[in-house]
Amino acid sequence: MIPTPFTIVIPTRNEADTIVEMVHCCLKYSPQVLVVDSLSTDGTPSLAKSAGAQVLCVPQLGKGNAIRAAIPAITTELVLFIDADGSHVVSDIPKLIAPIRAGLADHVQASRLTGGSSELHGSFQEFWRLAGSAFITACINWRFRANISDSQNGFRALRLEVLQALDLTETITTIEQEMVIKSLKKGFRLVEIPSHEHARIFGVSKIRLSRVWLRYGYALVRDLFG
Ligand SMILES: Nc1nc2c(ncn2[C@@H]2O[C@H](COP(=O)(O)OP(=O)(O)OP(=O)(O)O)[C@@H](O)[C@H]2O)c(=O)[nH]1
Ligand SMILES: [Mg+2]
Fold first, then answer.
1. Can you say how many angstroms the Cα of residue 29 is from the centroid of all Cα atoms in its chain?
2. What's the pLDDT at 199?
3. What's this model's pTM, rounded to 2 decimal places?
4. Ligand 1: does its nearest atom lie under 6 Å from the Cβ of 38?
């Protein structure tokens, strides 16, 4: 039997240092690699295209906007999201896809809490990110009697039907917790697997905690109780 094909979606904003290598690595696991770019000024879309990816340019900023814009362009039954900065272990892709292909999960997410992170400790910025993420995860576990360890990872795989059914609305990185909460709320089978997170080697983080923490709180309360 031919294994169910999947599309690898890579959201990008100014990731010229790593995108070519990321696309090449991803193409080893699937011929369908879709880079969704938001207004990069460093040539990321053309580099991605020359590396062999399909490229979708989104006219607004925000990882959530990019992920939502990618959904109508996906033609495979399965989809996998991975960041462009080299933080995720590409060779773990088959581990995320396997439980869905085996019919044991609808949504599989990588956990850096069980897989280890080289990124989330050290500075006060990282301390607050880790603390905030742990708080949100604890709220989700309490509300849905779940037992997940990570709710913010950008490395996840879903059945396309499930992704479409989530009716995602978030425009920024809050889309990760929105996918997790709505999957649990709608009774989809969410499975977690350990996967290491490396520190970003090139480029800069697009997350500004001081600007987004209120949005994380608002989206959490809305999705937990709405
Ligand atoms: N399309 C699109 N992608 C984005 C946007 N913001 C971030 N991304 C991508 O989303 C992924 C995660 O963003 P990062 O800045 O690495 O966020 P992070 O992993 O939480 O932070 P660091 O790794 O610490 O920098 C990367 O591939 C980014 O290029 C955006 O506005 N639009
Ligand atoms: Mg990153």
1. 17
2. 86
3. 0.96
4. yes
